[in-house]
Amino acid sequence: MAGYPQHRLSEFIELVPEEHEVLIQAQGKERQVGRGGVIRSQGDPVREVFLLSQGWALSCVDLRDGKRQIVKIHLPGDMLGSPSMALTHAAETLLALTPVTVTSVPLSAVGRIFTAAPRLAAALFLSIQQERIFLIDRLTAVGRLPAAARLAALIVHLHDRLALSGATSATTIDWPLTQEQVGDVLGLTPVHINRTLGELERLDLVHRAGPQLELPSLDRLREFAKMPERQWVRSPDWFPDPASV
Amino acid sequence: MAGYPQHRLSEFIELVPEEHEVLIQAQGKERQVGRGGVIRSQGDPVREVFLLSQGWALSCVDLRDGKRQIVKIHLPGDMLGSPSMALTHAAETLLALTPVTVTSVPLSAVGRIFTAAPRLAAALFLSIQQERIFLIDRLTAVGRLPAAARLAALIVHLHDRLALSGATSATTIDWPLTQEQVGDVLGLTPVHINRTLGELERLDLVHRAGPQLELPSLDRLREFAKMPERQWVRSPDWFPDPASV
DNA sequence: CGACAAGTTGAAAAGCATCAAAGTAGGTGG
DNA sequence: CCACCTACTTTGATGCTTTTCAACTTGTCG
Question: In the prediction, which pLDDT does A222 show?
Fold first, then answer.
């Protein structure tokens, strides 16, 4: 059977069985989408959010002139499309970077979390604040760092998130992104990403190895990225009681 | 007496009296900070968030090399510092742009909202998702638009938020920002902001009028900014019942 | 009136974009 | 198994946007 859904919430609290149950109940039908496939389009009416259970995906905003900004690279366990809950029509397009499995979570189920499991709701809230920090850091990198440091910061960020789920060895990470996609994440052209990757390689900070990246020294890469480190809270004392389920 | 605190939540729902009461109870002591003063520093331990009741403020991330990225311009009613709830130490510095009044909201009070007023918690959740959309749009502008469109997008954004609270006429908005601060918002240098403002002025899109900006045609400015329009939800049907307070 | 913060302007340089073309790899069909 | 197609990567040459540096102007407040 389906087992406990993978998600980001246990980064903040240890879920009790009742909370797990609420999460399982929240999930609707599962869907497979092939590489490059559309999970949901910008402008679609917002009736659900998604849980990414397998594969990588991306959220992006498309502009009128054909340019686009990739807003986030999603890994398994991520909740997709939730910023658009505040809108009538989705702000972001969700695309599969690799073949993915997503499960739909109707908005009504999200609403039920707030009454049925307040502590779970608080964890969800915190998880969204974490996403906001990720966005703040990306904005800072795009606004204030040169191309090489920007790219280093992205690599470090993805490394750290992969390491959290144990989906990577210390020195090698999966890298299913094309250089054009990386450019759309960092606000640069694919050509310049290519040259910048070469630069990082000459500095012995990363090495391209087919669909993976080797990271000879994470410390040096982190130093090079010039971004502040983040330490996430764990079971904050202001959280509601888990018993209240 | 203090009256109802000004906030962003009523953009999404009409609060019932009990919910207002919970919000009022949540507020701790009030503090005045002068122009340029620090409300909270990056790196400080996170024990509270703030409600901005008067004046303008900003959130920014400082980098090691002295550069900084301004992450948001805060207007009265905004909640300050909440992204750092997910962290042990604050990610952002909060500065007063004008003389401000802020009230402290201890984290324990935020936690109480989740058990005492689920619908209020859901509104808070939506409000944070809205902040995420703002960040997504800013990232898109900084990553993908040239300087002039970026600046136009910022002006339109602030206009719209000011218009919501009726704090502006149709064609003139307060503009307490220095060109250096605008540069730190948009990822540009103050010198270039100066030139870009001149460019918008020559295009008859904005006019500088001391501490204010005149906007001869919001339609043309919006068109020029090339950003998608956003329509926020109102009383979504998936929200918990207000009776559950 | 004098000092300091902010705005303005010019000239030169840097970083990144654009355009164009050639090279590589994986997948498909004959 | 080979040939081809397509998507992706790589490289060079050139141009544009933005930065940098520096000086000067304006405004504000003691």
Answer: 97
* Mean pLDDT, range A102-107, rounded to an integer: 98
The Å distance, CA of A196 to C1' of D11, is: 13
Q: Which of B153, B155, B128, B126 is nearest to B138 (CA)?
A: B153
Q: Is B2 helix (H, G, I), strand (E, B) or coil?
A: coil
Q: Which ranges of A10-117 would DSSP assign to H, the alpha helix?
A: 17-26, 107-116
List the one residue out of B10, B122, B16 whose CA is nearest residue A118: B122
**Contact between A232 and B87 (Cβ < 8 Å):** yes
Q: What average pLDDT does the structure give for chain B?
A: 95
**What are the tokens at B58?**
């900003």
pLDDT band, very low/low/confident/very high, at B30 (cuts 50, 70, 90): very high
The backbone torsions φ and ψ at residue A67, rounded to the nearest 5 degrees and listed phi first, read -75, 160
What local confidence, expressed as pLDDT, does residue A3 receive? 65
Distance CA B166, CA B35 (A): 23
In B39-146, which ranges are continuous DSSP H helix? 107-116, 118-144
Give the residue among A75, A228, A143 at the shortest CA–CA distance from B140.
Answer: A143
- A156: closest CA among A96, A106, A206? A206
With 0.90 as the threshold, say if the pTM is over it: yes
Residues with Cβ within 8 Å of B208's Cβ and at least 6 positions away in sequence, in order, are B197, B201, B214
CA distance A227 to A243: 39
Question: Which residues, including other chains, have CB under 8 Å from residue A94's CB and lie 6 or more apart?
Answer: A38, A39, A40, A50, A57, A58, A59, A80, A81
Question: A12: part of which helix (H) or strand (E)?
Answer: none
List, as ranges, residues 66-105 from B with C-beta within 8 Å of A.
67-69, 71, 82-89, 91-92
The whole-angstrom distance between residue B106's C-alpha and the CA centroid of its chain comes to 20
Per-residue b/e over A165-194, b at no fewer than 16 CB within 10 Å? eeebeeeebebebebebbbbbbbbeeeebe
Distance of alpha carbon A197 from alpha carbon B6, whole angstroms: 48
Nearest CA in chain B to A183: B143
Residues B132-163 have pLDDT tens digits of: 999 999 999 999 999 999 999 999 999 999 99
- Identify the CA nearest to B228 among candidates A60, A191, A187: A60
Place of tokens 């090691």: B64
Q: Residue B237 carries which side chain, given as an amino acid letter?
A: D
Q: Is the CB of A209 under 7 A from strand D?
A: no
